[in-house]
Amino acid sequence: MEPSIEPQRQRVFALVGNPNCGKTTIFNALTGLRQKVGNYPGVTVERKEGTAIDQHGGLVKIIDLPGAYSLDPQSPDEEILRDVLTGRRKDTPMPDAVICVLDASNIERHLYLGSQILELGLPTIFVLNMTDVAEARNIRLDAEKLSAKLGVPVVEMQANARIGLPQLRIAMSRPLGALASPPAFFASGESLHHASEPAEEWQERLIAARFEAIQELIHDSVDRKDPYAPTGTDNIDRVLLHPFLGPVCLVAILALLFYSIFTWAGIPMDFIDGVFGSLAESVKGMMPPGDLRDLLTDGIIAGLGGVIIFLPQILILFFFIGLMEDTGYLSRVAFIMDRVMAKVGLNGRAFIPILSSYACAVPAIMGPRTIENPKVRLITILVAPFASCSARLPVYIMLVGILLPGVAGIKKAGFLLGLYLLGTIAIFVFAWTFNRIMRKGERTPMIMELPGYKLPSFKAVLMQMWSRSWIFVRRAGTIILGLSILLWAAQSYPKSNSDDPAVQQAESFAGKIGKAIEPVISPLGYDWRIGIGVLASFAAREVFVSAMQVTFSVGEADGEEEAFQLTRDRLASAKRDNGAPLFTPLVCLSLLVFYVFALQCASTVAITKRETNSWKWALFQFGYMTALAYIGALMVFQVGKLMGYV
Amino acid sequence: MSEIMTIADLVPNDTAVISGFAAAGSHLRRFREMGLMSGTEFRVIRYAPLGDPIEITVRGSLLSIRGEEAKLINVVKQASKD
C-alpha cells in the first residue's frame, strides 16, 4: 500500500472575512503571541502573519489578510486580499487553503465574499462566528446542513469566548482534499455571460445571482419574524446617534480622551524626563569631561529621551482609538462627523485621526488606514500636522509669555486658542485645495457599515497599540537619534576657547549656519540666534525652548516655574547688535505664526514617509507646510512693520 | 403619484423596495455588493444629527449612505405595516 504522504512544507492558511467579522480575535486565538506584524512592501497595508498549531501538533502558518467586502478591489486593502489569494504577490506564499470568517448574525451579506472565495476554488473552511449574537436575533444556522450544501467544512464559533476553537483546529488538520469545494454551488460567471452584452450589466447580474444563491442557501435557516425588531445595537444607537444626545456624548468622550492625554500622560512623561535627566547626570559623574561624555549626554541620551517622551501620549491615543474601533463606536463618530468633513472633500473617517493630531501627529498619520479611498487617506495625512500638537505648546507658552507680559491668564488663553484656530483653518483650507487638485471633483460613493456594538477585547486593543507604537519608536527613534547627534555636533564643533556656552554656540557650525541664513530669516524679523533655535526645532519643536536657553545664557534655576520665568525674562531683555530689543511683540507674533504652520518634527516626516511609502509625499508635506510658515511669518512681520509696529 | 422616489425622499421608519439605480456603471457597484439590489427591501433608520448621511438597515446590517448617493437609488415606498 502506498503510504499517503502529507506535504513536508508548512501549510499556509489565509484568514479572510468582511471587516468586523471577528477575524482578528480568531487570529489571536489561533496564534497567541506567535505573530509578526509588518507592511506589505510597496503599499501601506498591514501585514500580519502568525504560527498556529493544528490538532495534531503540526505547525501551520496563518496569514491574516485585510478585511474586505468583495474580491473586486476598491481599496489598497482589498487589492492585497485578491493578489494574495490569487498568488500574484511574490512576497507572500500562495495560501494552500482559506479560512473564511462569517458573522453569523449578518450571514447574508458576509456570504457574498464567501461566495467569491468559493468561486476561486481554493480549499476552504467557513467559520460561523458570533453564533450567540445570531441566536439573540433569532437566526439559527445549521452548520451541518450548510456544510452539506457547500461541500466544505463549516465551523460554529464564538471566538471571543474561545468556543469552537478545537473544532476549527480539527478542520485545519484535515487533508486539503476534504476542504475542496465541489462544482460551484454559486452560479458561475461564464454561464451568465452573453457575448453581446456590456460587461457592466453582466457584473450586475453576477452580483444578483450570488445574492439569489445565498438566499436559497439560508432561507430555511434564518427565522426572522420581524426583520426590523430592535437589537441591542439599535438601543445603544438610539442614545449615541440621537440628534441631540449623540453629539453631546461624542463631545464628552472626546473631552475625556484629551483630559487623559494631558493629565495621565503627564505623569509618565515627567518620569521619563527624570529618568533620562538622572541618567545623563550619572554619566556625567562617572566619565571624565570631554567630547565623548558630551556626545553621550547631550547627543544620545537627550535624543532618545526626546523620542520616548512622546510615547505615553501616543500609547494613550492608540489605546483609545483602538478601543473605539473595537467596540464599533469609531464608525458612529464617522457617521456623526461625515457632513462636516465632506465639505472639504474628506469623509467622516478622517475626523478622529485629525482630532488626535491636536495631541500628536504620529497616530494621526498612522490612523487613516480605515479610510478606503487612497486619495482621501493621503489628503488626511498631508493636512493633519497643521493641528497644534502638544510639542508646540511649550513654544507657544514661552512666546505668548513674552508677547503679553502681565496680561491676565484668561486673555493669554484666548490668544492661545487663536493659534489653535489658525492651524485648524489651515487644515480645512488645504484639505479643500488638495481635494480640488488631486481628485478634480471625482466622486467616490461613501457607503459605510455601522457594525454591531460589542465588548472590546482588551488583549487585541493592547496588542495593536503596542505594535503601532513600536513602529513609531523604531522609525522615529533612529531618525531623531541621528538628528540629535548631528545637532549636538553642529553646536559643539569647532571648539572655541571660551567656557561660555553662548560663545561656544556662536562660534560653532550651528552659529555659522545661523549667521549664513540670516539674510533669509531677517525679513521675518529673526536674527541668527533665533535662526539657530528655529533650525534646531526641525528635529522637534520643543527643542526651541532649550536652544534659546543656551543661546541667551539662561542659568540654572530651581524648579520648572522659575526656569520658565527666568527664560522669559532673559529673552524679553535680549538685544539686537544695535541695542534694540530682539523679541518685540511683532517678532514673537511672526515666530508664533511660523510655529503654527511649519512641519518641524522629524517623527512626522519619518512616519509620513512610512505611511505613504514614498519620500516624495513626506518631502512635499515638509516643503509646503514650511513654505506656508515662511510666507505667513513674512507677511506678519512686513505688514506689521508697515503699520508702524516694531 | 407617478413621480419617482429615491432613498433621499424617505423619512425614518419608512420601509421601501429598491426599484433601480439612476446611475449606471461601476459607480455604485459597491452598493450592490453590500446587498442593495433591485428588489431589495430596506428600512430607513435615521438621519445623522447634522442631517446627512442616512442610516438604513438592509439584510440585517446597518449602512450609512450619503444623501448625494441616496438620490441615485430609486425606491418604491411600502405601506406601513402598523
Q: Show the largest interface.
A: A-B, 48 and 36 residues
> Which word captures the global form of chain B?
globular
Q: How far apart lie the N and C ends of chain A?
A: 99 Å
Oligomer status: heterodimer
What do these coordinates show?
With 646 residues, chain A is α/β, with parallel strands linked by helices. Chain A has helices at 23-31, 76-85, 107-120, 131-136, 143-150, 165-173, 189-192, 199-218, 232-240, 245-264, 266-286, 291-308, 311-327, 329-342, 351-356, 361-366, 374-383, 393-403, 409-439, 458-492, 501-507, 509-516, 518-521, 528-536, 543-551, 559-572, 585-597, 602-612, 615-642, and strands spanning 11-17, 35-39, 46-53, 59-64, 97-103, 124-129, 154-156, 447-449. Chain B has helices at residues 29-33, 67-70; strands spanning 5-6, 15-21, 41-47, 54-58, 61-65, 73-77. Classes of the chains: A alpha/beta (646), B mainly beta (82). The interface between A and B is large, with 48 and 36 residues. Strand 8 (447-449) of chain A pairs antiparallel with strand 5 of chain B, so a sheet runs across the interface.
Descriptive labels:
A: 646 residues; alpha/beta; seven-stranded mixed β-sheet; 7% strand; B: mainly beta; six-stranded antiparallel β-sheet; 2 helices; 6 strands; 11% helix
